[in-house]
Specification:
Length: 416
């Protein structure tokens, strides 16, 4: 059985070329026999492709996202042709008491230009992304094959939990985007609806479960379109627990308990639809509602990045600054796996020296969240560079200073 290489093709907005004709031209193009996973191509020898295709990305080989050299002659290529929606985030509102309008959720059409490249730039130590993608693809397969849910049970519910700033919400959005791309042979488009738990359980207690029902009635309208893949994102779902515990303890009105029960009931009801997925996050593991935990098929912990992951995050940031011309250098940061090779000890190149300095910075950054790590290059430039262009060597020195400053500032705040 051959490995599958996913080839993601972004078609230009103005293009009227149908998928089969586009792929016919694509198959005539001679790409390098050996190509690195994650490679993106933006120009082609075929003028038709240049006119109709924005870019082609040779994505993961099956579910492996580690950079590796792939022999195109030995893999089966699975093509995903799609356009990016440019509208961006829209706010869903509904009527509250009287004529007041309440912001119920944020809404995106997928695949969205806002989330383009997000999946590829989320870096984790384990196979979190691969596992989630495999879970979702199996979920859709079982639904398409009409597997009896009374015999084999699944709820299409994912729970990501862990400390703040580790990329849980971003991972949910990236997963929804990736699914809209990978499943475009089943669905013409995706819908991402993000519900904010804090808004739901602070403003809507007085209206009991009525507004919860209204909100899910709106979601149901999207779900009833069989051409749409609907992803519902509930951020910081531990708010459910606080509401239920307070109600049971008598410190909140029983109305709040009805709100939470209404939400769980609605989740149970929409699970019968094959085109809906519920993605949730929590920052406080101990506070997650057990009634909700039981509904989650995957309960995945997302922790702070290791030194290896930090190094890769910094490397991706430097590559982006080189792309924009802010960092100037003919040298590239060496991939982490090459730093471990014995023969690299004999290498005295500038690239290796700078890479080792970046590795040391990564080691000193251990304990920082992914969100903070991606601010380090910005802070390094703002505090210690302050010119339009800077050499790679000077920028790495500035990053070192920024990390030291960040660590010193953290001491002023109590750590959990």
């Amino acid at each position: 059985m051959s490995d599958i290489l996913h080839v993601e093709i972004i078609q230009r907005r103005h293009s009227c070329l149908d998928r089969s004709e586009l792929l016919r031209h694509l198959r005539k193009v001679a790409f390098d026999a050996l190509i690195t996973s994650g490679t993106t191509v933006k120009s082609f020898s075929d003028s038709v492709l240049n006119e109709h295709i924005e870019s082609i990305t040779f994505s993961e080989l099956n579910n492996e996202d580690e950079e590796k050299v792939i022999d195109l002659k030995t893999v089966d290529m699975q093509y995903h042709v799609y356009r990016l929606d440019l509208e961006g985030q829209q706010t869903e509102v509904m009527e509250g008491d009287g004529e007041e309008e309440l912001p119920a959720a944020s809404h995106w059409i997928l695949p969205s230009a806002e989330f383009h490249g997000l999946w590829e730039n989320l870096i984790y130590d384990s196979t979190i992304k691969e596992n989630l993608l495999s879970f979702m693809e199996t979920t859709m397969l079982f639904s398409d094959c009409k597997v009896n849910t009374n015999i084999i049970s699944w709820n299409r519910v994912v729970l990501l939990h862990g400390p703040p700033g580790t990329g849980k919400t971003s991972l949910c959005k990236a997963l929804a985007q990736k699914l809209a791309i990978r499943l475009n042979h089943c669905y013409t488009h995706g819908q991402l609806i993000e519900i904010n738990s804090h808004s739901l359980f602070s403003k809507w207690f007085s209206e009991s479960g009525k507004l919860v029902l209204k909100m899910f009635t709106k979601i149901q309208e999207y779900i009833e379109d069989p051409q749409a893949l609907v992803c519902v994102l509930i951020d910081e779902v531990e708010s459910l627990t606080h509401a239920r515990q307070s109600a049971l303890a008598g410190t909140e009105p029983s109305d709040s308990l009805r709100v939470v029960n209404a939400l769980l009931t609605q989740i149970d009801q929409i699970r019968r639809y094959p085109n809906v997925i519920i993605l949730t996050t929590s920052n406080i593991t101990a506070a997650i509602d057990l009634a909700f935990v039981d509904r989650a098929d995957i309960k995945q912990y997302v922790g702070l990045p290791s030194v290896q992951a930090i190094y890769k995050i910094y490397q991706s940031c430097i590559l982006e600054l080189k792309r924009t011309g802010i960092v100037t250098s003919i040298d590239n940061i060496v991939p982490f796996k090459f730093l471990q090779l014995p023969q690299m000890e004999q290498d005295n190149t500038t690239a290796l020296r700078l890479s080792m300095e970046l590795f040391e910075i990564a080691r000193q950054s251990e304990g920082l969240s992914g969100r903070t790590l991606r601010k380090i290059p910005f802070l390094a430039h703002a505090y210690y560079v302050q010119v339009p262009q800077v050499s790679l060597e000077d920028f790495i020195k500035a990053m070192h200073k920024a990390v030291i400053k960040q660590m010193a500032e953290r001491k002023d705040f109590p750590q959990p």
